[in-house]
Design brief:
The chain is mostly beta strands. The chain has six helices and 41 strands. It has a single domain, classed as TonB-dependent receptor, beta-barrel domain (Maltoporin, Chain A). The radius of gyration is 25 Å and the shape is globular.
């Protein structure tokens, strides 16, 4: 492993290029595509990526598919400033952008599907631990917006935003596609496999079309559990489908509708036991001993309708969504709670077992209506309103079991929490751009938000001394804003400066002695400058940004003798830069490099956490970097050979705030991936290898409550796969 001080091989291979030319933050969909032609919707308008006065990266669905990517963690380091920490199974993931994290949950990075948000806006549902791991088969591109997006996207986008842009139904083209593949994971006893299909049918030429796709992916496990004699206990299944409709109702009115479902079922978690000092495995390279099964499931149902209506002086856009999700996670907490059983019943065994079950249901409705002026050489504007209605039911339970797994009748369940909450938010927003000349313009935006929250908590069980109920309310008014200046010295480059604010909603607290009745929103302001463009007729694309973030009233968890609560405490800051470069030195060849530096620290003591001024924030490395090359060559009519390789580096990171005794320093990692493909007519075959050198590396803590064991989630070992796809 590297030492975590510099991004090793990448700097030796690419430092000269990065020093000579600022670098690029985009990943075009195919050879010969430059930043001039990449269109994004980050500012709720279609714009060239190069023209947007903000730090944005784009990954195409084609690129993710070619590399065999299965989850966010597979491609995170290809995006500067992004850290994705796996929770041990697909769908159980935390996301960090620009180092904005305290390691304690709460939504800090937003997730959008096309024009509508997913997930909870507040931290009540522990929703930040569950993310959409979307299979890339029907994905057009992923846009990653770094820095706060509170003006256009609202609450809980303090670190930034992940925006999945899905492929729309096409009324001009009949298309069918089918494919499948197999893969082998080192340390696994079986093959993983998957199948997928898609059909796009124009029902009325150039007017009405429907697109339907589906997939089934069986992921082989590779973690062994000697306590139960189980091999490969972390196998999982991902399955889902999507239907989309495109309707050109009139020359002025376009309607799109879609429905998507996705299920994840996992038999266990990818976590291994390590020595707390040496971080060497204690019972096997990829093993963890625990007495209780740890299944996980995620179900998502998502429905959306959007319409664009041209009314001459502006375009009116309506975006409506309704989603329902459920996440059920079981973790063996026997080491922490089992020894406590005799304190509550002297007849209970001291070596009892205890499973912690977390069951989170979220129903979410959103409506956004906005009006945007046409493109203009002088003045452009956008105004809109947004509403979200979110109902969360959070159920938690601790079991009390004998060593043979039977219930301890006097103690089971040991603790239960029934925690329904609701969150309502109304917002009005707008921005405007004034163009002093074709080369220089300024943009300003503002958003006024009001949220109200209802909180009920029913607790029961021996731990709590019986049943009790708490009902609380809170409300808050928040204003966020942004301003940017953009200078385009020529048609191929943009220099910009941007200031933007963001927030995470506060909320009510359970009435515990020593805890505040509620906690306030925490807020941050991001100051950023950037330069992006191309050289040599589009053969070189580059992007460079530098930023400083001031974060105040940070929401932090506090532990009291009577329970856990949340409070505001302390300040923090993050400073750094992101750089990317893409070069097309020859026909068919594309070389890309990126790096980021993040220095995120507390700026004051946080006594409630035992943290001190100057402590590094958790979950994000100081340095990340990636270097990749893609080459394709035609082999006659309708035949093409392609190949690619990439190096991904992530520096050392912390699992918690630096001064906290339980914090573990996770060493740096260097991952190499490769793929090769051959297209013959409508058939494409690919061979891919993820983690080619079989690097033993880790992402984050699995379970801080696991007693004396140090449990980390490893990067998936070497994975070799073969896929075939046919287009008709």
């Amino acid at each position: 492993m590297s030492d975590g001080k510099t991004p090793g091989i990448l700097f030796m291979a690419g430092a000269a290029a990065l020093l000579a030319v600022p670098a690029v933050a985009q990943e075009p969909a195919g050879d010969g595509v430059s930043g001039d032609e990449i269109v994004v919707t980050a500012q709720k308008r279609e714009e060239r990526l190069r023209d947007v006065p903000a730090s944005i990266s784009v990954l195409s669905g084609d690129m993710l598919e070619a590399s065999g990517s299965r989850s966010l963690a597979d491609f995170a380091t290809h995006i500067p400033g992004l850290a994705v920490n796996s929770g041990g199974t697909p769908g159980k993931t935390s996301i960090v952008l620009r180092g904005i994290s305290t390691g304690s949950g709460g939504a800090l990075v937003g997730t959008y599907l096309d024009d509508t948000p997913l997930g909870t806006s507040s931290g009540f549902a522990r929703g930040s631990s569950f993310q959409l791991d979307l299979m890339p088969y029907d994905l057009d591109r992923l846009e990653v917006l770094r820095g706060p997006q509170g003006t256009l996207y609202g609450a809980s986008t303090m670190g930034g935003l992940l925006k999945y842009v899905l492929r729309a139904a096409d009324p001009g083209d009949l298309e069918m596609r089918a494919g499948g593949g197999i893969e082998s994971i080192a340390n696994s006893g079986r093959l993983g496999w998957g199948t997928r299909g898609m059909v796009n049918v124009p029902l009325i030429a150039d007017t009405l079309a429907v697109r339907v796709s589906g997939f089934y992916q069986d992921n082989a496990g590779w973690i062994d559990n000697p306590a139960l004699g189980i091999r490969n206990e972390n196998g999982s299944v991902q399955k889902g489908g999507r239907a989309a409709i495109f309707w050109q109702a009139t020359d002025r009115l376009t309607v799109k509708a879609s429905a998507m479902l996705q299920d994840i079922e996992s038999d266990g978690n990818a976590a291994i036991q390590l020595d707390a000092v040496t971080l060497e495995p204690t019972i096997g390279k990829y093993s963890r001993a625990h007495a209780l099964a740890e299944p996980y499931s995620q179900k998502l149902r998502y429905y959306a309708v959007s319409a664009d209506w041209d009314v001459d002086f502006a375009t009116v856009t309506s975006a409506t969504s309704w989603s329902r999700s459920r996440n059920i996670s079981v973790v063996d907490e026997s080491a922490l709670y089992g020894p406590l059983f005799p304190d509550f019943d002297p007849a209970a065994p001291a070596d009892g077992l205890s499973a912690f079950t977390l069951d989170v249901k979220l129903n979410k409705f959103t409506q956004e209506l906005r009006i945007a002026s046409p493109k203009s050489d002088r003045f452009e504007w956008l105004v809109g309103g947004f509403y979200t209605d979110e109902d969360v039911l959070n159920r938690q339970m601790l079991s009390a079991q004998n060593p043979d797994g039977t219930p301890i009748f006097s103690l089971d369940p040991f603790a239960t929490v029934h925690w329904p909450t609701s969150y309502r938010e109304y917002a009005a927003f707008g921005n405007a751009t004034y163009k002093f000349s074709p080369a220089f313009d300024i943009t300003g935006g503002i958003r006024f938000s009001h949220n109200s929250q209802d909180y009920v908590q029913d607790i029961d069980g021996p731990v709590f001394g019986g049943f009790s109920r708490t009902a609380l309310k809170s409300s808050d008014d928040v204003t966020t804003w942004s301003a940017s200046a953009r200078f385009r010295p020529n048609g191929t480059s943009t220099l910009y400066a941007r200031i933007a604010s963001g927030y995470r909603p506060g909320g009510p607290n359970a009435p515990l002695i020593g805890a505040p009745d509620s906690y306030a929103s925490d807020r941050l302001t991001n100051y950023e400058v950037g330069y992006k463009g191309s050289l040599l007729g589009g053969l070189v694309d580059y992007d460079l940004s530098a930023y400083y973030i001031a974060w105040s009233d940070i929401q932090v968890p506090i532990t009291l003798p009577t329970g856990s609560s949340t409070a505001n405490g302390g300040k923090a800051s993050s400073r750094g830069f992101e750089a990317s470069l893409q070069v097309r030195p020859a026909r068919g060849l594309r070389v890309s490099a990126n790096t980021s530096y993040t220095d995120a620290r507390l700026d004051s003591d946080v006594p409630a956490l035992g943290a001190r001024d100057g402590d590094r924030l958790p979950d994000a490395a100081r340095w990340t970097a990636a270097l990749s090359a893609e080459y394709s060559v035609p082999l006659g009519d309708d035949n093409e050979l392609s190949a690619g390789a990439s190096y991904r580096y992530r520096g050392a990171s912390l699992t918690g705030l630096e001064s906290i005794a339980s914090t573990v320093r996770i060493p740096s990692q260097s991952i190499v991936d490769a793929h090769v493909g051959l297209t013959t007519g409508p058939i494409t075959g690919r061979i891919f290898v993820r983690n080619l050198l079989n690097e033993r590396a880790y992402t984050t803590f699995f379970d801080p409550d696991a007693g004396s064991s140090t449990l980390l989630v490893p990067v998936q070992p070497r994975t070799v796969g073969l896929s075939l796809d046919a287009r008709f």
